Amino acid sequence: MSYAAYKMMHPPTGVDHCAAGFITHSPSDAAAFSSSEAAAAATGAATSGPDGDIDSAAAAAVRAPRRVGPTPNLVVAAANVLEVYALRADAAATEDGAGGVQPSSSSGAILDGICGARLELVCHYRLHGNIESMAVLSDGTENSRDSIVLAFKDSKITCLEFDDSIYGLRTSSMHCFEGPEWQHLKRGRESFAWGPVIKADPQGRCAAALVYGLQMIILKAAQVGQNLVGEDEPTCVLSSTAVRIDSSYLIDLRVLGMNHIKCFTFVHGYIEPVLVILHEREPTWAGRISSKQHTCMISAFSISMGLKQHPMIWSAADLPHDAYQVLAVPPPISGVLVICANSIHYHSQSTSCSLALNSFSSQPDGSPEILKTSFHVELDVAKATWLSHDIVMFSSKNGEILLLTVVYDGRAVQRLDLMKSKASVLSSGVTTLGSSFFFLGSRLADSLLVQFSCGVPTSVLPDLTDESADTEGDLPFSKRLKRIPSDVLQDVTSVEELSFHNNVVPNSLDSAQKISFIVRDALINVGPLKDFAYGLRTNSDPNAAGISKQSNYELVCCSGHGKNGTLSALQQSIRPDLITEVELPSCTGIWAVYYKSSRGNTAEDNEYHAYLIISLESRTMVLQTGDDLGEVTETVDYNVQASTIAAGNLFGRQRVIQVYAKGARVLDGSFMTQELNFTMHTSESSLSSEPLAAASASIADPYVLLKMVDGTIRILVGDHSTCTISANVPAIFASSSEQISSCTLYHDRGPEPWLRKTRTDAWISTGIQEAIDSNDSSSHDQSDIYCIICYENGKLEIFEVPSFKCVFSVENFVSGPALLVDAVAHISSKDTAVGSRDATKFSVKKEEANNIKIVELAMHRWSGQFSQPFLFGLLNDGTLLCYHAYCYEGLESNTRCVPLSPHGSADLGNASDSRLRNLRFRRVSIDVSPRDDISSPARPRMSIFNNVGGYEGLFLSGPRPTWVMVCRQRFRVHPQLCDGPIVAFTVLHNVNCCHGLIYVTSQGFLKICQLPSAYNYDNYWPVQKVPLYGTPHQVTYYAEQSMYPLIVSFPVVHPLNQVLSSMAEQELGPHIENDVTSGDDLQKVYTVDEFEVRIMELEKPSGRWETRFTIPMQSFENALTVRIVTLQNTTTKENETLMAIGTAYVQGEDVAARGRVLLFTFSKSENSQNLVTEVYSKESKGAVSAVASLQGHLLIASGPKITLNNWTGSELTAVAFYDAPLHVVSLNIVKNFVLFGDIHKSIYFLSWKEQGSQLSLLAKDFGSLDCLATEFLIDGSTLSLVVSDSDKNVQIFYYAPKMVESWKGQKLLSRAELHVGAHVSKFLRLQMLPTQGLASEKTNRFALVFGTLDGGVGCITPVDELTFRRLQSLQRKLVDAVPHVCGLNPRSFRQFYSNGKAHRPGPDNIIDFELLSHYEMLSLEEQLEIAQQIGTTRSQILSNFSDFSLGTSFL
Q1: Potential cystine with 977: which of 328, 345, 551, 895 (Cβ 3.0-4.6 Å)?
Q2: How confident is the model at residue 173 (pLDDT cuts 50, 70, 90)?
Q3: Distance of CA 716 to CAs 252, 677, 727, Å?
Q4: Closest of 591, 584, 632 to residue 613, by C-alpha
Q5: In sequence order, what are the residues at sequence separation of 6 or more whose Cβ sits closer than 8 angstroms to the Cβ of residue 109?
Q6: Run of H or E including 773
Q7: How far apart are CA 1247 and CA 1254, in angstroms?
Q8: pLDDT class of 332 with cuts at 50, 70, 90
Q9: What does the angle CA 946 – CA 94 – CA 777 come to, to the nearest 5 degrees?
């Protein structure tokens, strides 16, 4: 193997940065929106969003309780992933409402009139670079939007704003201070402790970025109304413009006499922007405290951007050396808070005061005595945000939430008050969202959205109505508590406690607010992945083979830290829990239908299905779904002699319709009320009256759309009063000759049908019509039905039903453009240039594009008040196109110009007003790879489900079945590999199978299943998190009894004298002087980590993780490694499987390091007392950091020495050794080869020879490298060595003693290198699956799955040369062909990052699937053109992609 591929399979989840800003809307939009929301909730009238009736909204707002103010968006960055969320709060229904609206369902306590809130995704991007720092630039005015400013490594700054026309972020400016012309900024330094830090002025006049330690870049914002040069037309008259950056200049802080900057911020309350910088004049450290202590100071500079001058206006010196953060105090107080580890100081131009947090804080001589808190707390690395203008919330390093009140009188601050509140997650960032929410972002636990209320809450009791609704956000609270991962709040024991009851009343009256909190939502995080094991699932199938065998496994990971430590079980594919299975050959479709005998109003969401209709090749079976499934085929009036094409409910579930090839039947329960036969339409040919067969059908109550075998369309129209249907051919299709390739109906239902808002005359139709409608019709659910048709030539049209008036059309849907815009709106706008450019491109390679067409369409809008419809199109090569609708009111909708129609039909002019001209769709990337050619009369593949185990989405059947779940308006794609191809799928909800599913496999088995409820599917992979309440360090898998031994540590608080005496006993006797144990020190406590090895097992029936056995370590003994090893017993000559534990005693730098090796054996009998028994224990010099078994011997790395030992059954005897340089971090073994990584000295490659019993060095890497993880990469007969390092790189080496440059084999040669952008903490070698394309290739091919500290999982795999050359040239093309977000260059991101050390670049022999994945998102013409340019075909590239994803679907 000379070539490799890199792919992230599970993107990072640990949140590094979070910020709040009005990105997608301005504050005035939000205010109007929330007031009409209040009206909708309070009066029960269906006001339509922002265009609601203002008077009723005002009246309602008077009666409603205190509402939440305008809520900004949440921007979240996790490593290289950027996400923008909208906060959706559910208003609790008030009592004085008209009673029309039921509460959506209780999801917890009601606080400030809100009963629930959740985050919904607006857009997300995977960038080619890690986000180092993030700020939101906001000018604070009501009608302008905010921009996101991001800073990337070295010194790149990008400003992003939200663009309504593409419903996504676009780059408004980029600033780069790298390269030869900016080299002087580094002043000769090569490595910097941290990347650029960026902060924004609160009034949006400028932003400042600190790069290269001492260079401050001032980014000046453009004046309002001033546009950037080069933009001809204003962006948009209607939508508000965002803040933009105009120019920038540099300030060299060294000139101002600073040399070590810790933090900086902009302060409020000055005419010009004022920058306050916290810096250290001369450095000190903890060991020099006695002589040098108060070394920090703050300086305030007034930034005059016009003159480019920055006079100092005030400063304050003598701050403690552990000051690390300055916070700007909001108006009316203004000034800054300086946060230190042991104290907090307030400073402004006129006053200052401080507060000591513990006994370590000290004051400079001669200063007044300062206030102390009543409790002891340390604030280093705390994160802070302002809840109100005088209360700041800290999230401390152990997860406590502290509230600091600034007590002031006028503008003079009198004192600071600190009080403890709840315990929560260990956070990496915290931001306030509006006036009543804050978000705790975390790298070590799930990130939380919390609602807070400063007043006394009106009712903090959970609402006890228990309705089951569709979405996860609306689940009843008890059920949702089950879903909230266990590490949300550690001290939650009951439902009540979630509402943070212990509201603290501070001792001072002026700041006595009660603040209460409720957790409203959580974003899952599985990072940091320190270690993982690959083991069998509980519901695994021992007989599976091939690809379905892969879904027997799961990845059990050590994630989290401290009290947020969890064991996370990750699965890539879903394996449903089987309830029953029946053999059922040759099935072609399956449907579950409801039947309401009377108009009894049972809750629609919870109604049980009545019949199950199963279509076989030539007949149909009908089952009744009562207590058990009973066949009633003989006794019902269904057409059971023919196979069914579709079945469903009509007329509000009163009737069932069954569509078969020759006709349709309407049934009332089991009795037929009407039969309809399809005949040829008379106008076409009166001669042949032979019946015409239907090919596919789509049902949307009360219409049924049929596509006939000859490609024509019929529609069956139902009549509610008589419950009958009649067939007709829409006039527009009777005359047209265009071939239709696929069609579907879309039912736009709800209080306010979504598509109506996108009409040009939306304000007329919604405003007046609803006022009339709402009087006579009792229900507010209105529904519009649309028919979506795709023609053979790739054109897509949307029609209103039943009038069949065309409301939306797109010329070239089949090619998958990034945006779909209505063609008529397109002509009248200024975008004509776009259309003409595409036309020229299209002629490049027309013949290949011709045979690609859409075989199936679906459009659906899932539940949720703000949800927007999705449109899916399945191409006949297996590609799934997926679009998300949005509404864009462009310029042209104001002008109302009558478009010049290319068709020349006269009625288009007046029809244009009722068109959905503001409707647009944007393409959403979706990672589905069932590459297979679909024959034209195929079974429908897409089934939409609204509630399977509380989730909603779409199921894609076929050769690689896939679940596409819709959670928070984003797709979660989970394949299902366990049963091979699936031919039919339906949802089933009855007594024995609550919200379950039925599917039929291609082998002919019908399976009734449920989704495993222990897993949370709102993640890139399904995950189950088990709280450990301690930090997990290492896990391994014992296959014989499928148990997981893992190392867990947890802090224990000891009195200081106990700690000292126990250290004295060991060997410190003479060192301890008497004065240490004097008087007041005896009351102090000291925290020690205590370690244990837990053996955990997943209980088969319950699906819960249980601790089976615990092995405690001695005091001060840290367990470093646990592994299952197979040793050959030299006395009995048998192999034994043992558990080996390596430990180290940690006792400070004065004591020589010691460690222990422990061996345990597992008991074979079930009923024995002890699961494991210790068979060997021995102390060794040096910490035992890694163990492994090498051909029946035990290899132990203790300190700087590696020893190989024989096992006699009771003793270990050393037979060989090798001296490592410093400290071994990892050991890997293949056959008789050993690879180990050293903590500073890179990797060593050894071999073991039985004859002379010696470990000899074959080769090593001569560079210096801080290894994190190592592993062998095997490709057939070639062996490569992979290592990851502390600079977030991965390198692949090989051993080639014949090559000249290897210095006669002493030196390992570089094969490939790559910057991953995350610390890779563990590699796992797994065998790749042989794929069709590579069946003749080597079978002995292994890939490495790796986990990162950001919570990402990826793989590195060997690639054969032909594929590599093809994909590498594609990758080089894509660097320029794709517009990259933030303008980042993927090639420079993947460059080996040496952090200033000397490094000779290795060959570029690794391909990056992060970049290659953009190829599938290009339009068809661009895909064909690029493929042609690199001399291959599109289908060849896509089959390489699909082979790769098949070969690496390990889980």
Answers
A1: 551
A2: very high
A3: 76, 11, 4
A4: 591
A5: 115, 457, 459, 460, 461, 462, 463, 498, 499, 518
A6: helix 762-776
A7: 8
A8: confident
A9: 60
User: What is 540-572 written as a DSSP string?
Assistant: --TT--GGGGGGGEEEEEEE--GGG-EEEEE-S
**According to the 3-state scheme, what is the secondary structure of 327-378?**
EECCCCCCCEEEEECCEEEEECCCCEEEEECCCCCCCCCCCCCCEECCCCCC
Q: DSSP 3-state assignment of 1122?
A: strand
* Contacts of residue 1430, Cβ cutoff 8 Å, sequence gap at least 6: 1366, 1369, 1370, 1373
Cis peptide before 802 (omega within 30 of 0): yes
Pairing of strands 3-10, 1406-1408: parallel
Asked if 571 and 1015 touch (Cβ cutoff 8 Å), the reply is: yes
Question: Are the beta carbons of 1321 and 1348 closer than 8 angstroms?
Answer: yes
Cα dist. 1241→539, 551, 1224, 1283 in Å?
A: 44, 39, 10, 12
Contacts of 329 (CB under 8 A, 6+ apart): 267, 268, 335, 336, 337, 346, 348, 406
Q: 3-class SS at 1383? A: helix
Class of residue 112 by CB neighbours under 10 A (exposed 0-12, middle 13-18, buried 19+): buried
How does DSSP classify residue 1038?
A: B
- The full DSSP string for 1214-1244 is EEEEEE-SS-EEEEEEETTEEEEEESSB-EE
- pLDDT tens profile 1180-1190: 999 999 999 99
- For residue 1372, what are the contacts with CB-CB under 8 A and spacing of at least 6? none
| 1184-1210: average pLDDT | 94
Q: DSSP letters along 39-68, please?
A: HHHHH-----GGGS-HHHHHHHHHHS-PPP
- The reported pLDDT for the residue numbered 1180 is 92
Of the two residues 1336 and 333, the one the predictor is more confident about is 333
pTM of the prediction? 0.89
pLDDT tier at 774 (50, 70, 90 boundaries)?
very low
Determine contact, residues 6/1314, Cβ cutoff 8 Å: yes
pLDDT reading at 1239 higher than 50: yes
| Count of Cβ atoms closer than 10 Å to residue 1365 Cβ | 15
The SS3 call for residue 730 is coil
Q: In the block, which residue shows the tokens 């802090």? A: 1051
DSSP 202-213: TTSSEEEEEETT
- Token pair recorded at residue 532: 């993982």
Q: Which residues contact 631 (CB under 8 A, 6 or more apart)?
A: 621, 622, 623, 624
For 1269, 1352, 1358, 1388, the CA distances from 1355, given in Å and listed in that order, are: 14, 10, 10, 21
Mean pLDDT of the chain: 82
Amino acid in position 574: I
Task: Give 1391-1411 pLDDT, tens digit per residue.
Answer: 999 988 889 899 999 999 999
Could you read off the pLDDT of 975-1014 as tens digits, one per residue? 998 888 899 999 999 888 889 999 999 889 999 999 988 8
Q: At 1315, phi and psi to the nearest 5?
A: -95, 115
Residue 488: both structure tokens together: 């949300």
Instruction: Point out which residues pair with 728 in neighbouring strands.
Output: 715
Q: Cα angle vertex 898, ends 897, 903, to 5°?
A: 140
> What is the mean pLDDT of the segment spanning 1345-1370?
95
Q: Where are the beta strands (DSSP E) in 101-213?
A: 114-126, 131-137, 147-152, 156-163, 168-176, 197-200, 206-211
* Distance in angstroms (rounded) separating the CA atoms of residues 1404 and 187: 31
What gap in Å lies between CA 473 and CA 1273, rounded to an integer? 44
Q: Is 760 helix (H, G, I), strand (E, B) or coil?
A: coil
CB atoms within 10 A of CB 366: 6
Token output for 1417: 């998102």
The SS3 assignment for 1017 reads coil
